[in-house]
Structures are given as structure tokens and as C-alpha cells.
Design brief:
The chain is of the alpha/beta class. Helices cover about 40% and strands about 15% of the residues. The strands form 4 sheets. A 7-stranded mixed sheet has the order 2-10-9-8-7-3-4, sandwiched between helices. Strands 11-12-15-14 form a 4-stranded antiparallel sheet, covered by helices on one side. A two-stranded parallel ribbon has the order 1-13. It is globular and about 60 Å long.
Length: about 400
């Protein structure tokens, strides 16, 4: 491999949420942090070189993106997903959670119902409820170790609650599903037939595992393209979360103007200038780095899968189809969810994400971030096995 993903990069004392705030989150300082979804790998060197060149220029004034920025993003999504964008569709935001909150405020009214599928990324309910909208949940169904959409429940709850919006997680965080074209078509048809706008969070789109293909929601049907907001970012793919650069695509002009109007009301106009540089560089030069990264992450998953089978058969891996996260089922151990969190942190000295963080359906589960050197995965699994035994 050209890139060394085994290298340990010390992240303590860098204002890193993942490593420097254990005490704030009530965790032991020596617990191995495998929770928040950023990776412990340095970004593609070409990205760093572009940022350094910009830093050496030493003028960090008001900045915006030019044709080269759009071309880099456009070419990436066209080449990898067949998603052909138009420049006027693009709206830039400082992160996808910001984009979700902006969509809620601009495209629904207070008291409107918004549906999500739990267990799901925890900011989804937060941006709904904090903006005084009605949260509606259609839980995913776990059958034979694989989650599926309960289409009957999904449709019924959209109709009964007159849901105006559906926030889709695709690929799904934390359960790791990469939705098939048929599943997206079924959900999209229901939303289209009942005037429910789809906000599709596709931040993990570049991490579909071998044998699975991510489909941008807007490409499934021309009608869907007019009934959706596609939220993308280089942050998960290239480990750029701290630079806060996201690209939202809205083909429907009326929807786009409402979305942009709310951005103006919030006083937001331009991205961080470093974020613009990093995003363009990543999409222009990061392809080979990402290819090798995905191979390495597959090795991490293989290691953990085999370890659980041989050493901890009562801890079940929900086989992921995408993302660099893993969703583990600890229910067979019989722990109360709160006791499980305490046990993992204090006895095993590992810090995972509590499944309840993703909704009541996550009780007894833990989300694990595999975006780290393999030695960290090995150490964490060893500490888990020792503590359980």
C-alpha cells in the first residue's frame, strides 16, 4: 500500500472531541475511544499540500467556490454514482446537520410531522424536536440479522400524521444498510404519493462495501429528483469533518429557493475558505487514497468479525453493507443497557456509542467506529474479551 493506515497518530491534546473530552462525557481517561465517527487517519497528502499552499498565501479573506470546485464535486458524483448535477442545484452548508436543520426550518412549519427510521443518527430527532416539529418514528425491523424497512408501518404513519418530510439515512448509520434501488423506489413512491418531501443524508455514500452499490436517491426516478434534497459532504470519506464543508443538491427550484432563503435569514453566506480548498482537493486527488482506505477498513471488519465468532459468540455483529461503523448486538449477555455502558467503560476500558443514543430500538446495541489503525481494533477486542470472561 502507498498509504500507511497502521501508523498511530497521537490525537490527545489537540482539542479532539474523540480523545480529549472523556471526562466531559463521563468516561475514563484511559478508555479506548471508538465512538464519534471521525477516523484516526491522516487525510490524503494532496489535500494537506493544497491547504499548506493556501496557508502560505496568508490571506484568509471572504471566499467562495468557483467553477473548478463545482467541477470536482460534479465529476466525483457522476463517475462514482451516475448522479449528474447542475451547478445551480448546489447549495453549500457548514456541515450536513446544519443542512438538515435548515431544511426543517425552511421546508416545514412548526407543528408539522417529520418521519425518521430509528435506530438512526441521533441528530435527526434533535433537529426536528428543537425546531418544534412533531417527531414520527417508523422503526426498522431486524430480521435474521438484517434490518429492513417496514413499508406498511412507514406508509401508515406518513398518512396518519400527514408527514411533510422524511429524513432518510442512506447508507444507514448506525445499522449499516445500503438500501437497494427497489427499497428506495418503494419509500420514494410512498413519499411522492403523499406529498412528503425526502431529505436524503448521503454522507456515507462512498463507503458501500463490496457487493453493494449506493444509489443516490435522486437517480432512482426523475420524479424523485424533484421531491428531494440530497445532502453530501467529503467529511466522512476524507476525514474532513472539522473543516465543515457540505454540498447540498436541490433540483427543484422552488424547494431550493426556500432552502436558500432560510440560509440568508440565518446570516450564513460563505463556507470556511480552508473547507473549500480541502473539499476540492479531496475530490480531485483522493481517489486512490480512498480505494486503499476501503481495503484497509475491510480488513478491520474482517478481524473483528472473526474475533467475535471465535472469542465472543454471544456478541452478534449486524453485518454492515456500508459505512466504517459496526453495530453490535449485546442483548444475549442480558445486561441492562445502562449497566452495559458502565461495564464497557469501566471494566473493558473501551468507549463505544450507546445504542440508545440512536433511539429506543437501539437498546442493548453499541455502535463501533472501525476507522482506526488495526492495532487499536485488536486491543479493544482483547480488552472486551478479557472483561467479559
Amino acid at each position: 500500500m502507498k498509504y500507511d493506515f497502521d501508523k498511530i497518530i497521537p490525537r490527545k491534546n489537540t482539542n479532539c472531541i474523540k480523545y480529549d473530552f472523556a471526562k466531559v462525557f463521563g468516561k475514563p481517561e484511559d478508555a479506548i475511544p471508538m465512538w464519534v465517527a471521525d477516523m484516526d487517519f491522516q487525510v490524503p497528502p494532496e489535500v494537506t499540500e493544497c491547504i499548506k499552499a493556501f496557508a502560505d498565501f496568508a490571506i484568509y479573506g471572504y471566499s467562495d467556490s468557483g467553477p473548478a470546485y463545482f467541477a470536482a464535486v460534479h465529476n466525483w458524483f457522476k463517475e462514482h454514482f451516475g448522479f449528474v448535477t447542475e451547478r445551480e442545484w448546489m447549495v453549500k452548508t457548514p456541515g450536513i446537520v446544519y443542512a438538515l436543520a435548515n431544511a426543517v426550518r425552511s421546508l416545514t412549519e412548526e407543528g408539522d410531522s417529520i418521519i425518521i427510521q430509528q435506530p438512526v443518527y441521533h441528530p435527526f430527532p434533535k433537529v426536528i424536536q428543537s425546531n418544534n416539529r412533531n417527531l414520527v418514528v417508523s422503526e426498522l425491523k431486524l430480521e435474521n440479522g438484517r434490518y429492513r424497512v417496514d413499508l406498511d408501518d412507514f406508509k401508515r404513519k406518513i398518512i396518519d400524521n400527514k408527514a411533510k418530510m422524511f429524513i432518510l439515512c442512506s447508507p444507514h448509520n448506525p445499522v449499516g444498510r445500503v438500501w437497494t434501488q427497489e427499497e428506495l423506489k418503494a419509500m420514494g413512491d410512498i413519499c411522492l404519493n403523499h406529498n412528503c418531501l425526502v431529505i436524503s443524508d448521503e454522507i456515507h455514500c462512498d463507503f458501500a462495501h463490496q457487493g453493494h452499490q449506493h444509489h443516490v436517491f435522486a437517480t432512482v426516478s426523475p420524479d424523485f429528483a424533484e421531491n428531494c434534497v440530497i445532502c453530501t459532504a467529503p467529511s466522512k470519506t476524507f476525514n474532513l469533518a472539522g473543516l465543515q464543508a457540505s454540498n447540498v443538491f436541490i433540483a427543484n427550484k422552488k424547494v431550493r429557493e426556500k432552502f436558500k432563503g432560510e440560509l440568508e435569514r440565518s446570516g450564513y453566506e460563505e463556507l470556511n475558505c480552508m473547507g473549500l480548498v480541502a473539499c476540492q482537493a479531496a475530490y480531485e486527488y483522493g481517489g486512490e487514497w480512498l480505494k486503499q482506505l476501503k481495503e484497509y477498513l475491510a480488513g478491520n471488519l474482517d478481524y473483528m468479525r472473526n474475533f467475535l465468532k471465535t472469542e465472543l459468540p454471544r456478541v452478534k455483529l449486524i453485518e454492515p453493507e456500508g459505512t466504517y461503523l459496526a453495530w453490535l448486538d449485546f442483548r444475549e449477555l442480558g445486561h441492562d443497557p445502562n449497566d452495559l455502558n458502565k461495564f464497557l467503560a469501566e471494566k473493558a476500558k473501551i468507549w463505544f456509542d450507546d445504542g440508545l443514543k440512536f433511539g429506543p430500538a437501539g437498546a442493548g446495541f453499541q455502535r463501533i467506529n472501525l476507522g482506526c489503525p488495526r492495532s487499536i481494533v485488536e486491543k479493544a477486542m482483547g480488552q472486551l474479551a478479557s472483561a467479559l470472561k
